[in-house]
Amino acid sequence: MRRLAAVEEKEGVRILLAIESGSRAWGFASPNSDFDVRFIYARPEDWYLSVDLEDKRDVIEYPIVDDIDLNGWDVRKALQLFWRSNPAVIEWIQSPIQYIENGHFKTGIQALLNSIYTLEKGIYHYRSMAKTNYRGYLMAEMVPLKKYFYVLRPLLATRWIETYRTAPPIEFAALLHLLPKEEGLLEEIHRLLERKKLALEKELAPRIDKLNAFIESELARLENFSVEKEEKPAGMQDLNHLFQRILREI
């Protein structure tokens, strides 16, 4: 909290939402995992009434200090990305670990989530994340245990989108009921979770063939899977109204 208060004072901004992202929010942090703190901020209204607005920097970034990775996005940038179903913004507003909430940003943007979210983009994002992490880290004899979760979570997120046709929650535990009822699969994942809680970030272990088999079958299933394109019932005007309301609160 002190670091976030210092950001507000140094940068002349108001933090609207600050949350934990990454493995701590997902529910599978290691003992030495960084704290991935992300925030959305707003500046005084006059800052946005500028001829050169598009040339102004709309992110705040700091180097990692004391295992805290701290950076944030301007609210206008965040709303623009939200309109495009940007997965980072959508996960941030659903984080179970929250440090700061000011004004109506969070409640306003969450109210628009179901009408803005594009299922097709969600499927594509999570499928690509799973494929990249699997091929990059889990095909050797010795693998980093944490990478299983960087594959399993997005695979189950795609199942959530298929099943419920909404943005998936970010907590891994909330997705586990979507696993197929294959003997021993859930038990293997629970054992892996317990090992992960005690393992260091870069620790290697023998690959888990049962999980690899599930991952490969799921990636193959998703290769040609698609959802129909849908019209967004909410319009950009809804985001403009939210943006204007936020600026009046600064």
Features of this protein?
250 residues, alpha+beta, Beta Polymerase, domain 2, 2 domains, five-stranded mixed beta sheet, 11 helices, 50% helix, globular
* Share of β-strand residues: 5-15%
Roughly what percent helix?
Answer: 40-55%
- List the quaternary state of the chains: single chain
Q: What is the CA-CA span between the terminal residues?
A: 19 Å
Low-pLDDT sequence parts: none
Report the strand count. Answer: 7
Number of domains: 2
Rg, alpha carbons: 20 Å
How much is the average pLDDT?
Answer: 94
**Which CATH architecture of the largest domain is right?**
2-Layer Sandwich
How many DSSP helices? 11
The largest sheet is:
5 strands, mixed
The secondary structure category is alpha+beta
Shape: globular
Structural account:
It is built from eleven helices and seven strands. The chain has 250 residues and is α+β, with helices and mostly antiparallel strands. Helix 7 (119-137) runs antiparallel to helix 8 and helix 8 packs parallel to helix 10. The two termini are 19 Å apart.
Task: Break the fold down into its secondary structure elements and pairings.
Elements: H1 2-11, E1 14-21, H2 23-26, E2 35-42, H3 45-48, E3 59-61, E4 68-74, H4 75-83, H5 87-92, E5 98-101, H6 105-116, H7 119-137, E6 142-144, H8 146-164, H9 185-198, E7 204-206, H10 209-222, H11 236-249
Short description:
The protein contains eleven helices and seven strands. By secondary structure, it is an alpha+beta fold.
